[in-house]
Amino acid sequence: MPDAPAQRWLVEHEQESVQRLCEWLRIPSISTDPTYQPDVRRAAEWAREQLAEAGLQAQLIDIGDPPGSGHPIVLATSAGRGPHVLFYGHYDVQPVDPVDLWDSPPFEPVIKPSVPGGPGERIVARGACDDKGQVMMFLEALRAWRETSGAPAGGVRITVLLEGEEESGSANLEAFLRANRARFADCDICLISDTSMLDRGRPAITYGVRGLVYNQVTLHGPDQDLHSGLWGGRCPNPNNELVKILAQLWDERRRVTIPGFYDDVRDLSPQERTAWRDLGVDPAAALRAIGLPPESDIGEQGFSSVEREWARPTAELNGIVGGYTGAGAKTVIPSRAMAKVSFRLVADQDPQAIETAFRQWLRDRTPPGCRWEFASFGTSRGVTVATDSPFLSAAKRAISGATGIEPALIKTGGSIPVAAMLKEQLGVETIFMGFGLDDDRVHSPNEKFELDCFRAGARAHAAMIAEILAMK
Ligand SMILES: [Zn+2]
How does strand 204-206 pair with strand 408-410? Predict the structure, then answer.
């Protein structure tokens, strides 16, 4: 195998790989908090150096409006032959609060030994998995190829794009991609490693992510808060009206009632249903892990838990605020009530159409004398990758070769907006080959990345480079 020297290098230099990851994890690159701005830049600079050491042409690009107001993009390229591969990841991290729930300081990475029947040997730190650890698998694979073949990325044509605003909403990414279309126009495939395996020892390729529509809706009633004794029963109470309306979002089969909501939903094929059933995912065990009994396996009728997560759209109330919520009693009719409502979408639902239909559905139910105010937190399309693409077959071979285990083909209920942007702006398909675990506590205290996952991921990415080389 042409990647054998790179694979050997990864094994022999594993300690240094882990140390390098720890070095990166010590930089608190929290993108959403302006006080960490110099640290975010330092984390970008650190990644740029790694890429330069792997032989790529690497630079930081200031983005935002005005330019430089955003966190820089790390962009690196290598000349070569064969298909042009784009690798996307992010170097920023989530905030660490509540910090007192961490067993060790979030930016002082520690290696913890494996627990029998529990997690394996692991690095604990903010960003250990999401996304520095997962990006580091690829950076180390690039380093291994450079060290053993002399050529950057072993001679494959690569563009690496590392973003510093993923955890704060990727506000400037779409504009950057549009303005830099020429740099990415001839990319043949994108690799993203920000996803999970099916379970420990069960590597996976994710071939679908869901889309998202997220709105804040406010129902305005009287122009002032009112005494509920004097006014109760005499005028609309926005709290009462809002919950009555939102309760109509689902029917008795737990299907969303907005007209046209399911029109563009792609049906599950019988083959897909069988394949997913055969993965043997245990919904009762998953429920147990969140403190619920097996009878809590509820959702849209006619679909299994996995099908509901991977192939069916949902409506969720993520927050409701209205009236008096402080300590003790205050008999008030509030002048307004607010809810945050999100929809996870599947192929081929159009987020704009769903948002429009949702707002119209609310307007059709406006209580007398009341009015709506809407705000959007952005939308993204779902993405489904063709499972018969040559790149997906290459990724399967790379993972089986590196781990000895045939990867499962799975989807995720989450959303990765950049994949939709790449598809829409540039027509580039994405393959998600990530090595996280569902219990990695990403975004939570004690985030971790297991060393077995890190090893498998680095090896699989090194093997993927050999696969791409062979494709010419
Ligand atoms: Zn994240």
Answer: parallel
